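User: Predict 3'-phosphate/5'-hydroxy nucleic acid ligase's structure from this.
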Amino acid sequence: MSGQDLIDAGMSQGKWFRDALEAANRVLSDGGSTTDALAVARGYQPGPTLPLKAPNDVLIHMNIRAEDAFEQDNIEKVSATMRELARTPVVRAAAIMPDACPSGPVGTIPVGGVVASEAIHPGMHSADICCSMAISIFPGVEPKALLDAVHAVTHFGPGGRPRGAQIKPSEATLAAFRENPLLKEIISVGIDHFATQGDGNHFAYVGQMKSTGETALVTHHGSRAPGARLYDRGMKIANRFREELSPETHRENAWIPADSEEGDMYWSALQTIRQWTKENHYAIHDMTAEKLAAKVSDRFWNEHNFVFRKSDGLFYHGKGATPAFDDWAEDATDLTIIPLNMAEPILIVRGSNAAHGLGFSPHGAGRNFSRTAHMRRLGEEFGADSRGLSPNNIAAVMERETSGLDARFFSGIPDISELPSAYKNAANVRSQIEHYGLAEIIDEVIPYGSIMAGDWQKNAPWRRKREQR
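Assistant:
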């Protein structure tokens, strides 16, 4: 029996033909009739595809308000992309946080977006799986000493630690990598990138607790290359299901059915990446403590780019959204961490499990402008030429935005696209957290200084060649 026989029998051609033909021809080889063989083949035919939902079928909870024209434009874009995303057949509910901002083509989950679904969507936690916050309290340690110590032991920028300076995750985490088909081939990457913080908006921040005056270290980063590799594999799996189950669905919103073998495998891999990331934070904190010969009196952490499964059986995807519901993880405390910008306090909050937030709170003060748009605005303000901001311009921006702070850049070159003016007004975000009842602010970490990657690409070989041309 050939594929043409199946087509002649009224079946639509697809990848399933191969398995169907193998089964049908086994029936014929065993003496069965053509009718019996065609009946077996039809059993391999996929069911009807799922259409997109109608616009406005899914309620989107808006926990954001515009304070100016720029934010109004931002809200309209965020709302449009979430309305398109909510047409995905398996999506059940959505919410937008006060720090929301677009993060891709229309239909892509925005930063500050929460989506409840019947399935797992890799595109809704993004490549920076488990981007998260961790805090350790260092009683009796001066802020400058703590910032100096973390600067000496951490690693920002591309790639991992150099050979000979690598630090291994725990044996339990490495064993979990070996046991999962999606992770076992990237164990070496998990070692290379361990105890590193990446670039972009990731940071090590030192300050003092408002309540006690004790010095604290707060780190912000995700799962680095291991998470990015898992994301790539998850998107490929999800897209195969999308092509079969719902071709109309945006590629960014493709899903992995929870009850499939692939769903079990991916869910397990996510938990391993989560454990890797938690260990990654605390490895940096512990090396800092060792550098100082100091003790840590308290610590906790939380992710804000992840997927959580609630008792209702749905998967809650937070893209730049902090869990604020009870027992969101086995290691959950009743407190979570919300940064705003390097010049503002980091908020320590207790979640309120607000229904209109789907049980989430913001993850920080998101952007109203992309990095490129922000740099263009700064260029117009400071009179930059075609080569961009001059060193004097950059010094002026730094003085205006980081005065009184020990603001450091690991590469030695400031990344002014990450300075406070790049982000939404912190007071407005804080006000909206309280206005919408998304969390209760319990304490604050008052800033002393911070470290970010900086503009590590400034002197990259490819950039120097381009400038020379």
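The domain at 132-468 is CATH 3.90.1860.10 (tRNA-splicing ligase RtcB).
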